Each structure stands twice: as C-alpha cells, then as structure tokens.
C-alpha cells in the first residue's frame, strides 16, 4: 500500500470536481505509473489510456484507488483480487458509520478483501500521502504541497490527517506520511503503527484516536514498537453518537484510554499543534534519561510561563548543581537569576555559553531555551549546533519576532537538528512530553491496562 510500483485509479474521471478526477490528478504525480480505470472513460488521462478493468492494465498493479460508490466496491475488489492487486483505498462512505445496511456492506467488503489478501484502507477516508515518493493517494486538493518530514501521521479521521499535514507545512516540518484510517476495515491503528515503525524515514508516529473496539491491541502495539508514539484521544466530553456516525468509532471512556496510554508509555496531548510539537521533540532529539528540564530564558516573563507550564504538564525543574551555578555566575556576573530557570535578562553574546553550561549539568535531562529575537545578536546557532548529540539530551528552542528577520537563524537552528517552537506554551508542552516519555520508559512500565479500554 505505502510502497507500490504501480497504481490504478478505478472510477477515474475527466470531469473536474469529481472524486475520480481529483484522485487521478494527485495519483499522476506518483514516481511510478498511474492508470485510469473506467469502462465509461475514453481517450487518455496524463498519457495513460483508459481501460475497462484493473485486469486490463498491462502492468502489475500493487495499489488500487477505488473512486466508486459503496455498493460497487465488493465487485471491484473481486476484479482487483483476480488481477493480483495487494492493496486498495476505498473513499466512499455509507458503510459501518451509516447504520445496519452500511454495516452489512462493510462486512461484505472486508470478507472480499480478506478472501483476496487485499490490505484495505477505509472505507470512508480521504486516503493517504507519502510525500517522499510523491504518492498522493487522496482526492484532496493541495496535497502536492505537503513537504517530506520524519513524522508519520496516523489519524482515524481523514480530515484530521490532512489538518495535521497542512499544519506541518506551515511549520516547515513535513511528514513521512499522513494516513486517514476511516472505518478501519482491515487496516487500522495496529497495522499502520507496525508498518511505520519499520519505515526508514519515520522517527516519530502521532495518532488521532476517536475510538476503537480493541484498545488493548492499540496500546500494546504502541508499547512494543521502537519508534516514539504520541496520541491525541478526542472525546473527553460526550461526542459518542457524532463519532460513531463519522467513522463508526466506539469512543469508550476517555479516562480509560488516557490511563491505558499512560500505563504503556504513550504520552498524550489535547491539541493538534501539541501533537506535532511532541513529534518534533521526540523525533528530532535524543531520548532523555529522565524528566528533569533545565530552562534558559533571555526574558523573565516567558520563562515564568514555561516554568509553570512544564511543572503542570508533568515535567520537573531540578536545582542546578553548585558547579553549574558557579559557572553561570562566572560567565555573567550579576545575572538576573542563576538557578533553574536561568534568566539572563536579555540576549547577549554569552547566551550560548549559558545554554551549554545548563546542558552539561548532570541534574538536567532536557534543555529548553527561550529567546526573543534581537537582530544585532541573532541566535546562538554555533553553540547549539551539535550540542544535543554531544550531551545526549534534547535541546529545544522557542522564540518570537519578525518572521523575515529571524528566518535565517531559525533555519540554521532547524538544520542543526534543534526543534524550534513559536510560543512559550508550545515549547513547554513539548518539553513536558519528553519528560513524561522518559519517566514512563525509564521505569519500564508494563502494567496491565483495563480490559474495558
């Protein structure tokens, strides 16, 4: 599914605005061939002639994108099975989310897919995108602008998958893949997590979860993979009927899901931007040894916000060693506040030395730096470049200023592997996720989670 050599678009259309047209436009950008399939089609699309069936394609097709109405899906899957197609995406709705008739149709679809050994994404999904290979198996517009990154987005909702992908574009981060599971006919969280755990371009996996009928399998899979996983479980208030009408989801007890993720070492967040920030922190940084966060700020106000937020979100602000305090005092005599957080009062040429001193403190597991941009001084790029690897600790950086002024320095930090955040709160939440991740994994948590999840 996620690494095909050839793609067929079943129900491809030359009529703009139809799902079959938009899906074909996106699929045509694939590094390999994309074939239009429609018995009503004529001529060619993007250089490939229309054929009546997948079986008529003069090539081995790995992946079929089904732009056909729900009732036609079982027969199309039979054609795909006969042609040796190994994976399919079903965009149509009207399945398990739509009542008893839809449930019966989905059961038939799953039966046919399993009979032919077809991995099935959906139904009721907007598909998936793998930017690195220009694999844009979605009918949504704009997916060609999603950049390549190292975070795999696995969302129950196709809409949320795209929300997250477009957010990563604005943040300059990108994704290794973004996947909308939809109704999870026979490809669900477990299969997607296991796949992206072995995906070379993925360093972190983020989940958007409405609900699932096998919460235990979900949390156990998250525990067993090597790639860090962060989850956003929605449904803290009563959204059960709405969620069930959306992807056929069983939302379950929110507190049980939260407890299950916590017991199995999966940090949870409560916003889409926090989800991506956590992925950047976990995917781009060494794994911290513990929950202790050392903060260096060039301005006291943002530092107070960060200090408060980190502690409320599960991080710890340890006392710096006497050696570090003396070292900081020697670098900047009369410094505003020389404990944790270290407050320099404003940016200055020695700011990078202060950051280095805190990063080298044995009491610190995670470093968070805040500095409002001052054009005359810039960021301490040279000091931070390679610092995280040398001390084997995450080093996060947060800032604000005029975008055009700080763009070059920000790009230099990101090129050096330093995750950059735009608000004190988002940086603090990311640091706290690292702290919670270190605490749960450091303790080797393997507790039993309630069978009710």
UniProtKB/TrEMBL annotation:
Name of a matching Pfam family: CoA_binding_2
Classification via InterPro entries: Acyl-CoA_Synth/Transferase, CoA-bd, NAD(P)-bd_dom_sf, Succ_CoA_lig_flav_dom, Succinyl-CoA_synth-like
Domain CoA-binding: 1-95
EC number: 6.2.1.13
Keyword vocabulary terms for this entry: ATP-binding, Ligase, Nucleotide-binding, Transferase
Secretion signal, residue range per the UniProt entry: none
Molecular functions per Gene Ontology: acetate-CoA ligase (ADP-forming) activity; ATP binding; transferase activity
Keyword Transferase: yes
Catalytic class of the enzyme: ligase
Catalytic activity line of the entry: acetate + ATP + CoA = acetyl-CoA + ADP + phosphate
Superkingdom of origin: Archaea
Designated name of the protein: acetate--CoA ligase (ADP-forming)
Species annotation: Halomicrobium zhouii
């Amino acid at each position: 599914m996620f690494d095909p050599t050839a793609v067929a678009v079943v129900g491809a259309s030359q009529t703009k605005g139809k799902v079959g047209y938009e899906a074909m436009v996106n699929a045509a950008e694939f590094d390999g061939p994309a074939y239009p399939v429609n018995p009503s089609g004529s001529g060619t699309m993007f250089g490939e002639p229309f054929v009546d069936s997948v079986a008529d394609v003069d090539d081995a097709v790995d992946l079929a994108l089904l732009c056909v109405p729900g009732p036609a899906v079982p027969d199309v899957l039979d054609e795909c099975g006969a042609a040796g197609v190994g994976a399919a995406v079903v965009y149509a709705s009207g399945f398990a989310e739509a009542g008893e008739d839809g449930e019966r149709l989905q059961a038939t679809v799953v039966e046919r897919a399993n009979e032919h050994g077809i991995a099935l994404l959906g139904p009721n999904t907007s598909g998936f995108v793998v930017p690195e290979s220009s694999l844009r198996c979605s009918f949504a517009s704009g997916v060609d602008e999603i950049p390549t990154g190292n975070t795999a987005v696995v969302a129950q909702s196709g809409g949320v998958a795209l929300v997250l992908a477009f957010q990563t574009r604005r943040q300059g981060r990108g994704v290794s893949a973004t996947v909308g599971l939809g109704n999870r006919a026979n490809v669900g969280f477990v299969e997607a997590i296991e796949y992206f755990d072995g995906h070379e371009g993925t360093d972190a996996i983020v989940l958007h979860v409405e609900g699932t009928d096998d919460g235990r399998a979900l949390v156990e899979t998250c525990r067993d993979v090597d790639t860090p996983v962060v989850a956003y479980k929605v449904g803290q208030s009563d959204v059960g009927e709405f969620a069930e009408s959306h992807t056929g989801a069983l939302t379950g007890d929110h507190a049980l899901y939260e407890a299950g993720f916590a017991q199995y070492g999966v940090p949870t967040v409560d916003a889409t931007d926090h989800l991506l920030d956590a992925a950047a922190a976990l995917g781009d940084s060494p794994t911290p040894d513990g929950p202790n966060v050392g903060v260096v700020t060039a301005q006291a106000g943002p530092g107070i916000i960060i200090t408060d937020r980190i502690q409320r979100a599960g991080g710890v602000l340890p006392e710096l060693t006497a050696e570090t305090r003396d070292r900081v005092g020697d670098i900047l005599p009369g410094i505003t506040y020389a404990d944790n957080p270290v407050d320099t009062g404003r940016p200055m040429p020695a700011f990078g030395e202060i950051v280095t001193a805190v990063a080298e403190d044995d009491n610190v597991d995670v470093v968070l730096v805040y500095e409002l941009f001052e054009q005359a001084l810039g960021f301490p790029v040279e000091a931070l470049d390679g610092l995280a690897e040398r001390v084997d600790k995450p080093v996060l950086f947060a800032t604000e200023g005029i975008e055009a002024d700080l763009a070059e320095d920000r790009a230099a930090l990101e090129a050096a592997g330093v995750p950059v955040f735009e608000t004190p709160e988002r940086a603090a939440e990311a640091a706290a996720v690292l702290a919670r991740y270190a605490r749960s994994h450091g303790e080797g948590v393997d507790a039993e989670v309630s069978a009710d999840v």
